[in-house]
Structure formats: structure tokens, C-alpha cells
Amino acid sequence: MTDTHFMTDNNVVKSNRIIYTSTAFARTNLIYLQEVGELNALRPHESKRTGLSSYLFFIVKKGSGTLTVGGTRFEMTEGDCGFVNCSQEYSHRSSDDLWQLQWVHFYGYSMDGIFEKYRERGGEFRFRPIDGCGKLSEIISEIYRTASGESYIRDMEINGLLSLMLTEIMRNSWNPERHGSDLAKRNDLQSVRDYLDENYRENIRLDDLAIKFYISKYYLAHIFKEQYGTTINGYLTQVRITNAKKHLRFSDRSLESIGADCGYSDVNYFIRMFKKAEGMTPSEFRRRWRA
After folding, report:
1. What is the CB neighbour count within 10 angstroms for residue 18?
2. Other C-beta atoms within 10 Å of 134: how many?
3. pLDDT by residue (tens digit) across 148-173?
4. Is residue 83 within 8 Å of 171, Cβ to Cβ?
5. What is the pTM of this model?
6. Can you say whether the dihedral through the CA atoms of 242, 248, 250, 256 is positive or negative?
7. Which residue, of 3, 64, 68, 279, has the fewest CB within 10 Å?
């Protein structure tokens, strides 16, 4: 792995950056770093790119400017963040109120799916973190320090930091001000989830949930999937299978008894659902994990 750490100082920007080349292992298996740094604009200027195998995340530390993605322009001020798939055309421009940016370019085999999930959950190209930019800024600074170091596992360490950054970005992938009156209903989703966690043994129907929580079943199904990334039935299945695995590993109970205790009165249906989720039958799971 190699990196180039340098300062640039011209009539456009003053920057401190690391251009990083990851190992072949990292490029094949990890989320890997391409570039990280900070810049201060010295005059209004525009950077425009397209067709890059890269994702860009940046924070406006001071000043203001604009981010344009696919022809849509977003005003950016201090405390705003930008998250862009660089394969599509985008540009960013400092205003007369010259901005200071902290940024990271990165990529990985899983990034297209992660970004798609981010957008599916309502994530925007420009957003303002719920709790401010402090944590994200610290992560980027740590990426910079790690990339500057000599650790023989720094690609793994950088992968962990980029994953932490993406987790924080995903946590901010919807904005209360954009959704307005949806906020209270979204908060109620935790009550729905708690109910599923406690009552997974029962025959739970979407109609019953809608009545219990005073919400349209169609709206409930929509916002639950948007918030948690799975359908209500999908989440219920996860809870049931997780509890079934505990019984299979730590008890000698029969499949019929375990299935019934996890909401499956038909043992054959329990076996089918378990195999669909885990790629093996309950009996195979028990043999492998108790060996």
C-alpha cells in the first residue's frame, strides 16, 4: 500500500491531503480509501467530475457553496454534508463566502448497494446531521491519521473507520424537517417493533397491527420498511428464526416444540422457513453449532 501526503497551495485552494493506493486485497474485499483531506478555498471556483469509480463524502466546516448532482443544485452552508456517487455527473463550487471542506473519497465492492440503501431510506445528496458534524469530522480525521501511519493492517483499520462513517451517515438518512408530520408516526415504529419482539409467538397480521397502533396498514408497511430496511413479515421472521437458533443450540427440545414456541404451528413450514433463512435445516444447524 502506498500514499502521497502533500500540501497544495495555489491561487484556487490551499489543501492538505493524502492520495492513497490500497492493496489488491483491500480493493477486492474491503471498503477502501482513495483520498482524504481538508481544503480552504482561496477564491470562488468549481470542480466538476463524472464517471469516477468513487464515492465522495464531505463536510462544510466554514463558509458556503453549492453541490450540483444530476442537474439539481443544493445550497451548502457551514454544518452541511454532501454524499455523492461519483459515477454520475456532479460538481461543487465555493461561493464568495469561501468555504473550508473536509472530505474523503472511497470505494468498495459493496458501496453501490450501500448507497442504494441510503437513497432508498430517504438519504439525500445534501444533509445536515441530527447531532451536528462533530462525530463525522472526528472519523475523517482518524482516517487521515491512520492513512498517515505505518500500521501493517491499516487497510483493515481504514475499512473499519469507513464503515463507522457510513453507519453514522445511514443514521442520518432521513430528515425530520423534510418529513414534517411523519416524525411522530415514525417514532411510534419503535413501539411496533417492541410489540413484535415480545409477541412473535402469536399469529400477527398487518391488519391487527394497524388497528392496535391506530395507523393505516399501507402506511405502516411503507414506513416500517423504509426505517428498518425490511418488511414487517421479514422482521418477524428474523425474530422467530433468531429465537429458534437459541433453542436449537442450547436445548434438546424437539423441532415441533421449538417451531411452535417460535410461532410456527406446522413443523414442516418451520423447517422450510428456517432453511430459507439459514441455508440449512434446523437439524443441520443444531449438529453444526453443537459439535
Report:
1. 20
2. 10
3. 999 999 999 999 999 999 999 998 87
4. no
5. 0.72
6. positive
7. 279
